[in-house]
Amino acid sequence: MSPRQLRYFVAIARSGSISQAAAALHIAQPSLSQHMAAIEEELGVPLLKRHARGVTLTPAGQRLFDRASAILRQLDHLPDEVAAVQGLPRGEVRLGMDGSIAAVVIAPLYRAMEARYPDVRVFVVTGLSHQMRQVVEARSVDLALMPNAFELPSLLSEPVYEEHFCLFGARGSFARGQRRIRFDDIGDRPLVAADRHHDQRKLIERVANARKRSLNVRYEVNDADLTRALVRGGLAQAVLPCNAFAAADGRHGVQSLDITDPPLNRIQSIAWPAGTPLTPAADATRQCLHDTISDLIERRVLQGRLPRIDRHRSEPMD
After folding, report:
1. Are 50 and 70 in contact (CB under 8 A)?
2. Quick check: 131 pLDDT over 90?
3. How far is 191 from 172, CA to CA, in rounded Å?
4. What is the value of pTM for the model shown?
């Protein structure tokens, strides 16, 4: 199986259509179909399920897609890795992170990268925390800033900071001068939260179940911007990381209370696939992202606590 055939297969998997992949690759569809048949014959397993709307991957096809994507990215990075021996790192790096954090981090990160590693180009992919896990494990990004990565054996991780959760509500939702709220006192307040597949929701539900409390989740929304809109509109309150409203528009029209008894915390880490060594460019980005976030926390631009553990350890803080 040649690298060219791997590229053909990856193109088909990403487009979900042999005809669309053929057009993108500028080759005839019958020729592309022949290449696919040759790959399946060589491996002895079907890789695609064909249907009226295109194709989907079989379990074997998904495994090949994950591995092929990683192999092709390594091949693409190879010239830059070799050249980096003679000087500063260079090449492209895909970095994933939550959109609300990216809005705060991206400008100082790019500024630091341009100063320290001018030949490295960083492309940022944003999404929810469970989406970051998916794109890292699929090797669609080189590394990602994501919560609780130490729980995932398929990833290596470097803790960056611990963030605290708050209860957010529209201005006037809380008593004047109130700064904190016990978890048990959230009570029947109408909440907006992600569905139960989302890491934040799992954390909140786990604490609620342990304390034999129920949550009044009025709206389930898997979109950070829509969640913030519902909070600003006064339709619901939300239990979110303290930096959830730290984007450019700040906390206009929104108040927050620190959650206590028990406090809710989680660790944000830089994570990457365990079986794929970081390229020099990706490792430079990791270092720069870690330093940038540490600086933002020390200057209180981001709210959080720096870890008190050795770097590159995949363990939670005490």
Report:
1. no
2. no
3. 16
4. 0.69
